[in-house]
Amino acid sequence: MMGTAEMTQPTTTQAESAPPPLEPLIYDLGAPGRTGVSLPKTDVPEAPLPDDLLRAELDLPEVSELDTVRHFVRLSQLNHSIDTGFYPLGSCTMKYNPKINEDMARLPGFALAHPLQDPSASQGALALMYTLQQWLAEISGMAGASLQPAAGAQGEFAGILMIRAYHLANGEPQRTKIIVPDSAHGTNPATTAMAGLQVVEIPSDANGDVDLDRLHEVCGDDVAGMMITVPNTLGVYETNIKQIVDVIHGCGGLMYMDGANMNAMLGVAKPADLGFDVMHYNLHKTFSTPHGGGGPGSGPVAATEKLLPFLPGPIVVVLEEGDGDAPPLYGLAMPEQSIGRLKAFWGNFGMLVRAFAYISTYGAQGLRDVTNHAVLNANYIRARLKGVYPMPFDRICGHEFVCEGHWKEAEGIHALDISKRLMDYGIHPPTNYFPLIVPEALLIEPTETESKEACDQFVEAMIKIAEEAKTSPELLHDAPHTTPVGRVDDVLAAKQLVLCCRVLPDYET
Ligand SMILES: *Cc1c(COP(=O)(O)O)cnc(C)c1O
Q1: Rounded to whole angstroms, how far apart are CA atoms 445 and 397?
Q2: In this model, does residue 312 exceed pLDDT 50?
Q3: Whose CA is nearest to atom 11 of ligand 1?
Q4: 174 CA distance to ligand 1 middle (Å)
Q5: How many CA atoms lie within 13 A of 264 on its CB side?
Q6: How many angstroms separate the Cα of 29 from the Cα of each of 8, 24, 68, 73, 77?
Q7: Does residue 426 register a pLDDT over 60?
Q8: Which residues are CB-neighbours of 441 under 8 A, at least 6 positions away?
Q9: Which atom of ligand 1 is nearest to the CA of 282?
């Protein structure tokens, strides 16, 4: 959370508020022979390194330990982070992850556990996984869960394969279509295609809900199921979710819930109660684990009774019930008609420990509060920005809402300019240009942990930027002004990624 004093009016030029210079680079700090380590005298005979491992042309800096520490700490301070400021990308990318979860994942008994250790020597890890399976089943209202998938997208893939396997087992191979709303995350159609099924896209109506008439039209005995995000990616709870579920079930299809937005449902509604048959969680979104930058994820799938036999495996099972003093004996087993393995060993175990720690520290009421506060914060900001930014859907939102970053009175201003200008106010940009069906989309998700003061500071920055867009648009066009790196060419930056802090001589922009 930002202190009031820290959010000052940004300056307009680079010179007035120069960020700490990137120079000198670590390459310039060294001197021949300077070293950062002092090793004891060797007490074994020296052996020459193999020639093919020595690269004489590598120009490595020779620096002291302190030079190295200062270099890397300085670099780390050039980044915006959730620990230093507001981050409206929310649970989707960077919600605040309580530090205790990190401590738990680093406990040597967990961090150093070897996946090939005999189950008899891994009972603690298996107990944790079993309990997490049970909790994820309970939170969703489903009958069971598998912790195998390594990401949300892989959870989707598992769920669609399970739906397909179910239809095949029932002698209905003709069910090859998956219905996906046009507001869906790109992974939904991609998953469907990877599973060898066909995507049937249906439009959203003017309220941001699935177009029910279209849904009726596409339903038939070739439909395997429907994949839908709740609340949907436009930030709203589907008004007719019960009817949608009934229409799909009515034609023999199954319902898949993309659970990436569970931050808006925990302890308040259970996907199984809404009629869903299978879903995934993004543990790295809802249940802690930093994942910006593509770190490891975890996308467990939960399913109702009829899909349990198809879960990816192995899953953790109780081999012998405990009694009084003796804990149960846990083991690993493959569900009967499992779609198979998706991941080496037992999933991304470190993520499982973090999620376990997160859920157990919050408890049932705490999880409900997470959702209540996340939804309250998003609606508070939405209400305060109403009338300042165009909003395609004027209705209560879930844990996020979408507005549009453009105005008739501010020609040439785009959502991207607003995002870049936010950086000058010490705020990370929100999701830009997604969902695809909203022009100049800004998808704003504050999350549950932000205080009212922090939400207010964000709103005030957004209001100021809306004024600037009309009175001094160049401030937005040239933004950011106060960051170590100014406006980058996003396309070039993606195509010609430079990961070295030293500009290479042959690199031309
Ligand atoms: C993030 C997200 C996904 C994909 O999850 P990954 O863990 O990134 O693979 C799918 N659907 C929605 C709605 C998401 O937000």
Answers
A1: 10
A2: yes
A3: 185
A4: 28
A5: 29
A6: 34, 7, 9, 15, 19
A7: yes
A8: 402, 403, 404, 405, 415, 431, 432, 433, 434, 435
A9: 7
Q: What type of residue sits at position 104?
A: M
Pocket lined around ligand 1, Cβ cut-off 6 Å: 92, 151-153, 185, 187, 229, 233, 258, 260, 282, 297, 299
The H or E element containing residue 65 is helix 65-77
| pLDDT confidence of residue 8 | 46
> Residue 36 burial by CB count (10 A; 0-12/13-18/19+): exposed, middle or buried?
middle
| pLDDT at 17 > cutoff 70 | no
- Closest by CA position to 422, among listed 474, 483, 362: 483
Cα maximum dimension of the chain: 81
| CATH code assigned to 102-360 | 3.40.640.10
Expressed in angstroms and rounded, the spacing between residue 428 Cα and the centre of ligand 1 is 20
Closest to 359 measured CA to CA, from 82, 131, 150: 131
Separation of CA 187 and ligand 1 centre (Å): 7
User: Is 180 within 8 Å of 248 (Cβ atoms)?
Assistant: no
Would you call the peptide bond into 181 cis, given omega within 30 degrees of 0 as the criterion? no
97 C-alpha to ligand 1 centroid (Å): 18
Which residue carries 């250790």 as its tokens?
117
**73 Cβ contact partners less than 8 Å away, ≥ 6 residues apart:** none
CA of 156 to the centre of ligand 1 (A): 9
Q: What are phi and psi of 110, to 5 degrees?
A: -90, -50
**Based on the number of CB atoms within 10 Å of its own CB, is 388 exposed (0-12), middle (13-18) or buried (19 or more)?**
middle
Which residue, by CA, sits nearest to atom 6 of ligand 1?
152
Report CA-CA distances (Å) from 406 to 397, 427, 466, 497: 21, 19, 9, 29
Write out pLDDT tens, residues 368-399: 999 999 999 999 999 999 999 999 999 999 99
Which DSSP state fits 4? G
Omega of the bond leading into 335 within 30 degrees of 0 (cis):
no
- CA distance readout (Å), 492 to 93, 353, 479, 487, 503: 23, 38, 18, 12, 15
CA distances from residue 165 to 247, 308, 310, 481 in whole angstroms, order as listed: 21, 11, 7, 54
> Cα–Cα distance between 82 and 96 in angstroms, integer?
6
Query: pLDDT at position 39, please?
Result: 87
CA neighbor of 438 nearest in space, from 231, 91, 182:
182
DSSP H helical ranges for 251-403: 271-274, 283-286, 349-385
Q: How far is the CA of 258 from the centre of ligand 1 (A)?
A: 8
Chain mean position to CA 169: 34
Whether residue 405 is predicted with pLDDT greater than 80 in this model: the reply is yes
Mutating to test ligand 1, I would choose from 258, 261, 342, 443 the residue with most ligand atoms within 8 A of its C-beta, which is 258
Measured from the Cβ of residue 412, the count of other Cβ atoms closer than 10 Å reads: 11
234-266 burial, b for 16+ CB within 10 Å, e for fewer?
A: bbbbbebbeebbebbeebbbbbbbbbbbbbbbb
